[in-house]
Amino acid sequence: MFINAKRFAAVLSLLSVLCATAVADDWPQFLGPQRNGISTETGLIDSFPASGPKELWRVPGGVGMSGIAVVGDTVVTLVQDDNEQFVLALNAQTGKTHWKSPIAAAYRNPMGDGPRAAPCISGGKVFVYSGEGVLAALNLQNGRLLWKRHPVVEFGGKPAEYGMACSPLMVDEGLVAVTIGAPEAAVAAFNAETGETVWQLSQPGDTAGYSSPAVVQVEQEEQLVVHGGKAALGIQPRSGKLLWRYPYETDYDCNIATPLGDGKHVFLSSGENHGSVLLDVAGTGKPKVVWKSHDVQSVMRNEWQTSILHKGYLYGFDNVGSAGPVTNLACVNALTGEQVWLERRFGKGNLIAADGKLWMTTMMGELVLVKISPEGFQELSRAEVMQTTRQAPALSNKRLFVRDNAEIICFDVAK
Predict the structure, then answer these.
(1) Which domains are assigned to the chain?
(2) What is the pTM (predicted TM-score) of this model?
(3) What pLDDT does 312 receive?
């Protein structure tokens, strides 16, 4: 079976330390507590009423592609108005604004304006990365700026073509890392208290790409796995030592999905008709390819969505063509690479998992519930709730949070 229970438990234990301010029902960072899109919450609805999911509140937000983080009763995201990118904190129960703090001037890009990266909340601080690559830490309680720097410029680089999209990650207690893609630092880690550089890893010729890194358990040790624009890297989190490198190039350096690990393997996937690969990264030296499925016949081509790995199966969006309009929903045996089922032309969207269901947003502004099962595709419910969006939902304390370029919305999803 793809997931080793003991190793998976070790990962959960590690990440509970790293996100010391978080409790079981928090969603403190991009893709949730373990950065794999999975929540442990249960007792959630199995379908929406005819009128749609129960809305608790809906408030104005702003432009941007940033996701939502939730700790306790505080909801945090990044948005942009005509002049500034700012961090916005709301009350999870009411939607009332706690505070908003500017971090950079407005960011504009032909592929969409505003910040891209989701916040990371840890140790009473909020860590954010702006569209052009300004890294900042703020006080969670009041939004006061603690430190700010521009590592992309400092390390001799320039922003990625479509903007900096890496969501900050606490890779060890007191250490926050981001992908930079600069000549002097492909990746770097910073002291969470002061912002000082702790380590930087140079990989000349590599670019940032658009993926967010993850900490994965590999046998008895943790690795920081980064999927840059030209390659995937395995890194020792505390020292920044390079453990392995696997070349993985796509058109336009569009590696976007976050790597997934299970204690021995790392799963990578990209769109642009590229495909997927499962790597054995145990031991030392070059990773071993367990299976790969590339080009137009690939079983999984994640464009900008990270698949869900659940009980040995991958559930995710398979985009056909070079950023084309046709996107399927697929289920793949994670260990063998065999496609188990395919729902053709499901449409572009994003997803998380909880309580035996995929909780999905679509670019049509819908919420969709799909049963998690390798037995076949089974849609449970669908409702149009917002404008077009690329962000996956965030789930905390039986409340589902979504956003588009205009609003932030909270739904009660308790059974």
Answers:
(1) 5-412 (2.140.10.10)
(2) 0.93
(3) 96
